[in-house]
Amino acid sequence: MINGIEKIEIPPVDKETAGKMKQHVDQLTKPVGSLGQLEEIMIRLAAITGEMFPDLSQKAVAVFCGDHGVTEEGVSPYPKEVTGLMMQTFDRGKAAVNLLAEAAGAGLVVVDVGSEWEETPGSVLSARVRKGTRNFLKEKAMTRQEVVEAIRVGRETVRQLGEKNVRLLAVGELGIGNTTAGAAVAAGLTGKPVSSLTGKGSGVSPEAYARKCEVIQKAIDFHRPDPENPLEVLEKVGGLEIAAMVGAYVGAAEHRIPVIMDGFISTAAALAAVRWKPEVRPCLFASHLSVEPGHAVLLDELGFKPLLHAEMRLGEASGAALVMPMFETAVKLARNMAVFADLGLSAPQGEKN
């Protein structure tokens, strides 16, 4: 591979600590399994961090931004300039994710990996690999070197967050045209029909939606990406911010940081990361179920259930930020709830309700 990318070493999760947490959870004063997915969070956090009650007070939301050459084909109702305008909105603290991150007590890191905006706004980190991808209907979206560099940006972002003792991460994206790229990546990785993966994104008309599906199908037919080679899929039909999210997921797994996926596009990146490095999967959590039709398909591919069904489709890591407090709540319950022994009782052995 290129630039040392093959040197990735992902430590295994701590099954022993996870087993201890499972025993502890079953001793809490409640019917077995009655806290549902919160119990799974407790156990999986123990496995990832190696701690029974990890301190998740240091949290971060990472949003990766990039533009897409395929917007030349009329697949989005918004001009590509909106990517830069939204980065300015992030900089002013006025986007949805600014407020959601604040509500969750998380820091926000916005990274420009590939926008076409002339100048990256002040608080947005500039790590631009190139100004937007190429039009993948006509040529490869990126070179392999550009894919690798975007992955490096994501890994490095998470490494730096880890150095700041961040213990819980939410990942998302921004980029006009990236639901088209996300659907193309999903199609390339799964082989599913384009129509089952493609939604209306930011709100295209029926005619534009038909054009969007046509563009994606033609691109898949033209490039014929290998579903078992996720870097090739990214190279041919991906996005710079999608590749950066792949790197962020890998980086989180390297540093044993639990990482929350956002919606459709960030989950497409997660599937690419897991196809490339299967050891990433145990560190991932699904936040919500987007109304984008392909999201459920991707979650099924990964074997995850979303925590929320809130009919969201914003992106920006908004859904991932929204569920962050659930993780701290899960740890608080595990740490502070009484156990049956405190009541002089043994834990019940009944079925889950």
From TrEMBL:
It catalyses: 5,6-dimethylbenzimidazole + nicotinate beta-D-ribonucleotide = alpha-ribazole 5'-phosphate + nicotinate + H(+). GO terms for molecular function: nicotinate-nucleotide-dimethylbenzimidazole phosphoribosyltransferase activity. Catalyzes the synthesis of alpha-ribazole-5'-phosphate from nicotinate mononucleotide (NAMN) and 5,6-dimethylbenzimidazole (DMB). Pathway: Nucleoside biosynthesis; alpha-ribazole biosynthesis; alpha-ribazole from 5,6-dimethylbenzimidazole: step 1/2. One of its GO terms (biological process) is cobalamin biosynthetic process. Its EC number is 2.4.2.21. It comes from Thermoactinomyces intermedius. The active site is at E316. This is Nicotinate-nucleotide--dimethylbenzimidazole phosphoribosyltransferase. The keyword Disulfide bond does not apply. The keyword Transferase applies. Keywords: Cobalamin biosynthesis, Glycosyltransferase, Transferase. The gene is cobT. It comes from the Bacteria. It holds the Pfam family DBI_PRT. Belongs to the CobT family. InterPro entries: Nict_dMeBzImd_PRibTrfase (IPR003200), Nict_dMeBzImd_PRibTrfase_bact (IPR017846), Nict_dMeBzImd_PRibTrfase_N (IPR023195), Nict_dMeBzImd_PRibTrfase_sf (IPR036087). NCBIfam families: cobT_DBIPRT (TIGR03160), PRK00105.1 (NF000996).
